Amino acid sequence: MFLTKKAKDEQAFSNGLLAVIDKNYPLAIELLTRAAELDHHNATAFLVLGNIYRLVGQVSRAVNIHEPLTLRKHLASQDKLKIYLALAEDYQALGHVEKAIENQRKAIALDNKNTVLKKALFYYLKKQKRWEDAFAVWESVRKLDKSEPVSVLAYLEVEMAETAFRNNENRTAEKKVRQALNLYSECIPARLLKGDLYQAAQKDEAAFKEWA
User: Fold this and answer.
1) What is the pLDDT of residue 53?
2) Cα–Cα distance between 167 and 169 in angstroms, integer?
3) Long-range interactions of 15-24: CB distance < 8 A, separation 24+
4) 165, 173 contact by CB (below 8 A)
5) N or C: which end of the chain has fewer CB atoms below 10 A?
6) Span 28-75, pLDDT tens digits
7) pLDDT, tens digit, 9 for 90 and up, residues 105-150
8) Sign of the C-alpha dihedral, residues 24, 26, 29, 31?
9) DSSP letter at 71?
10) pTM for this structure?
11) Is 80 exceeded by the pLDDT of residue 6?
């Protein structure tokens, strides 16, 4: 049976996706590569192909496939979003977290009310110890979903307070501890750090009360 180029592309693409489902990654790579070669406009074939290379540990190759997709014009917003998310995962796998953050932000710009995307960004920022940025992202998550715990913000305030304390910026640390306890009165790390601050100010009795 004679197949047109389009039909061959569609067949290779469909069979490639089936191979992905079956976790037969070598076959998936072969078929999706063929689909991409037959139709260079099939961005999804390139996207999935790059994802598979990341799954099998060839992350740099995944980046080389995904990066050029960002330069394509006339892509639908959802396609662009998926590409940025793929790149965020690629760079995270390579340990280039700042590049992961950059691409995650680009994805969020296309779907600003998506809490799942924002939570992933929050994870990346925490990994980099960018506490203030993580705080801002979690605040935006809570604006969209009030059921998300406010205690997360309190613990981030403590992280900022501990940084200030290590830098001998005790007034800033005290302010951050107060803010943490205002957000979540049962924040134990805030209580412990408050005791440390009292001890640093030679107020041992007050410190012991916080530590008790």
Assistant:
1) 98
2) 5
3) 16/45, 16/48, 17/48, 20/48, 20/52
4) yes
5) N
6) 999 999 999 888 889 999 999 999 999 999 999 999 999 999 999 999
7) 999 999 999 999 999 999 999 999 999 999 999 999 999 999 999 9
8) negative
9) G
10) 0.89
11) no
CA dist 212 and 208 (Å) reads: 6
pLDDT recorded at residue 81 = 98
Dihedrals phi, psi of 3, to nearest 5 degrees = -115, 140
Residue with tokens 């197949």: 3
User: Quick one: 6 exposed, middle or buried, by C-beta within 10 A (0-12, 13-18, 19+)?
Assistant: exposed
User: How far is C-alpha 210 from the chain's CA centre?
Assistant: 36
Q: Please say if the pLDDT value at position 4 is more than 60.
A: no
Say how far apart CA 63 and CA 181 lie, in whole Å.
43
